[in-house]
Every structure is written in structure tokens, then in C-alpha cells.
Amino acid sequence: MTQYFDPHIHMYSRTTDDYKNMAIAGIELVVQPSFWLGSPRTNVGTFLDYWEHMITFETLRAREYGIEHYVCISVNPKESVTRPLALDAFEAMVKDRYPLRDRVVGIGEIGYNLINDEEEELFVKQLDFAHNENLLVMIHLPHNNKPEGMKRMIEVFKSGNYNFQRILIDHNTEETVKDTLDIGAWGGLSVYPKTKLSPERVIRIVKNFGSERLMVNSAADWGESDPLSVPLTALEMKKQRCDSADIENITFNNALNFYKQSSKFDWTSKDREQGNHK
Question: How high is the pLDDT of residue 274?
Fold first, then answer.
């Protein structure tokens, strides 16, 4: 059976039916980055409870359906503007060593939402923390005005000696893919109804830029989204007679190669063959 990897999905907001359908469709691995609560947070404890839930309960819930679940920890860009709460949450994240826990493969999502100074302050703090701890990073491009977000992000990168082989810039579109690849980072392509990419747009991007260092994700969350976006994109690519290597690269291999740089990512093909889940 064909295997798929969804490297960005918010299962906190999804049902067990989603896990079941994902497993049936061949999704074997997922990474869940830190998201926003859906309503304003009132204290640091809500962050701590959320991170704990992802690391422990969601890992077990996924495993019930034969899916291996990993986590990225952060103060999400959408929640990074509240002062002093966002800064306090970051300090608690570091103090309680959440990014160093088992199943945590990186820092993310971090980056921009509205593209302002408050977001950038948390972005830089978390980016530097990841760099100092040699952690992988998942960066969130803003949903609106992506070129401006990318431009500002590149200015941030100039201030440090960052290893772009360990950085994934997500929510790319045709406007940003070239910049992402040119700096040496990995690129996420979110297939999401209405507000992000369609499978057809992904196909055009791959035709123009190739499949190296690009990966498809669903970014499924509270909104109108589809946790089967990765296998559905693969299906559309097969229907359009796309190269099988490109399909495998953007729906499994590249995500695997990026995340296996983390010492906490302990999945191997042998686990799949033997049905072992640690």
C-alpha cells in the first residue's frame, strides 16, 4: 500500500473519524505543530496544558489507528502579539523544557500572521532558541501578503547564522517558492480549500520548480479543511501522469528526510514492515 506523510496537521481540532480515514488512505506519519486555541488565551497554563495534550494524548490517539504522531512546540504567530502573555508563555516553554521532550521534533509554527513587530519579537526569540538547541524549525508564512512576509523574514535571517537545511518554511505559494528554495530551506505546500493551494496549483509548482525539498501538507484545523489532502493530491498527480518520483517526494520522502534530522524522530521503514510503534 502507498504510504503518505502529513507534515503539518492540527489533530487537536480533528475527530477520531479523521484518524480512521487517514489510516485507511495510507497516512502513516503526521507532525502536529502548535496552533492557536480558537479563542483568546487567558493564562500561561492554557499553553502548558495544550502542549502536554499534544505530546501525550494525541500521540496515543493517533497510535490507536496505526499512525505515528510527532509534535512541534511554539507560541503560534496568531497568539504571539498578546503582551505579556506571549512572552511569559515562551519563557515557560523554555523553563519547563517542552521542546526537548520525547516526540517533539522541532519548534513551530513560528513566523508572521499580521506581519508586525510583536510577532517578529517572538519569531526571533523562538528561532534563536531553536538554533542554539540545534532543533528543527517550522515557519509560518502569513496568509495575506506573503511576499512581504517573506521579505521581512529574509531580513531576520541576515542577522544570524541559521542552518536552512533544518528550516521548513510553510504555506508557500507560487509567489514564495523560489525564495524559499533559493535560501536553501525546505518548502511546505498546504492544500486547503478556498484559502490556500489546490492540488492543481501544487502540480504546476512542481512542474516549474521540481520536487526537491518540497512537501505537501493538509494544514487541517478548525476551518473548512481536509485531512486527506496529501493522498488526494497524490491521486490528482497520478491522474495527470506526473512522475512517480515527484509524487513520492512531495507526499512522503521529503517530509521524512527533513524530520529524520531530529533525534526525536524515531520512525523507520522497519517499523512499518513489522507493525511496530514505539
Answer: 52
| 3 vs 201: CA distance, rounded Å | 22
With a CB cutoff of 8 Å and minimum separation 6, the contacts of 240 are: 203
Distance (Å) of CA 43 to CA 50, 54, 66, 92, 246: 12, 18, 35, 11, 45
- Rounded Cα distance between 41 and 255, Å, is 31
- Count of structural domains within the chain: 1
CATH number at residue 179: 3.20.20.140
Where the chain has pLDDT below 50, the residues are 276-278
Interval 135-168: pLDDT, tens: 999 999 999 999 999 999 999 999 999 999 999 9
Q: Which residues of the chain form beta strands (DSSP E)?
A: 4-6, 27-33, 68-73, 104-111, 136-140, 167-170, 186-190, 214-217
Q: How many angstroms separate the CA atoms of 175 and 8, rounded?
A: 20
**Pair 60, 54: CB distance under 8 Å:** no
Residue 151 belongs to what domain range?
Answer: 4-274
Q: How many residues does the chain have?
A: 278
Cell, residue 75:
507560541
Query: Distance (Å, rounded) from C-alpha 274 to C-alpha 158?
Result: 45
Among 176, 64, 24, 194, which residue's Cα sits nearest to residue 112?
A: 176
Q: How far apart are CA 77 and CA 110, in angstroms?
A: 6
Cis peptide before 99 (omega within 30 of 0): no
